[in-house]
Amino acid sequence: MDPQTILETICAAERSCAELMLAAHDILTRDKGSVRNLVTQYDLKIQTLLTAHLSRVFPSAHFYCEESETPESLDAEEIFMIDPIDGTMNFVHALRQSCISIAYLRDRTPVVGAVYNPYADELFTAIRGEGARLNGSPIHVTDRGLAESLVAVGTAPYNPELSDVTLRMLRTALLNSLDIRRMGSAALDLCSVAAGRCGLFCEPLLSPWDYAAGALIAEEAGAVCRMLNGSPLPYDGSRPSVIAGGPNTVEDFFLLYNKS
Q1: In this predicted model, what pLDDT tens digit does every residue of 205-231 receive, in sequence order?
Q2: CATH of residue 189
Q3: Nearest Cα to Cα of residue 158 among 119, 100, 80, 210
Q4: In sequence order, what are the beta bridge partners of 38?
Q5: Are 147 and 120 in contact (CB under 8 A)?
Q6: How many domains does the chain have?
Q7: 123, 139, 155 — which closes off a domain?
Q8: DSSP per-residue codes, 92-120
Q9: The pairing of beta strand 179-181 with beta strand 200-203
Q10: How far is CA 155 from CA 9, 23, 202, in A?
Q11: pTM of the prediction?
């Protein structure tokens, strides 16, 4: 598959399905084991439409999707990783901070990524080795250090057993940065890092569909993306912590976090 063709196909699918998000009404929800972890009829419908659109262009495509009861194996050579609505709680409460996130992986390595926020009409894209873009214009991280950065944070709300780790991360960020922001979509937070709006993003646990596209976009914009132990992000189906930002800013965070 040609990466540029894949990106164009992904972007067309996201823009088409985003019309459903913008026109959403009478949203129905059910929880996925917790009242904090919701799925709506729009998550399911958008996921179905996205996979159908991509399958028409790429008939042999494999998919790893948030709302699939049994996601396909990540052992497939080529796979699309899809979060049909990242920020579902925001979507349910009309906070207008949600997006569609799709990454294309080859041999468990993200090669193409696109994250679309229809409320702001902002399309973040990246092809590995070719940089990151916002609505077609190049973007790059800022790297002023933690003390001069806004920090986007996630709180792993589905996993209260991680509250101590979460609060330690938040305290490190709050006491050593300009301020923290909790916006409710990891994919968009990673794109905010890529666009230089936030200097750092941190969350103690994410699923791969939450970060696959956003992390590629951030990395192509010059960010370092790591787990809390300093290791590279995995794409094996595990659910790691995610720290992302400019190299100096990430180094500042790790030094201060490990001292706290």
Answers
A1: 999 999 999 999 999 999 999 999 999
A2: 3.40.190.80
A3: 210
A4: 31
A5: no
A6: 2
A7: 139
A8: HTT----EEEEEEEETTEEEEEEEEETTT
A9: unpaired
A10: 33, 29, 9
A11: 0.96
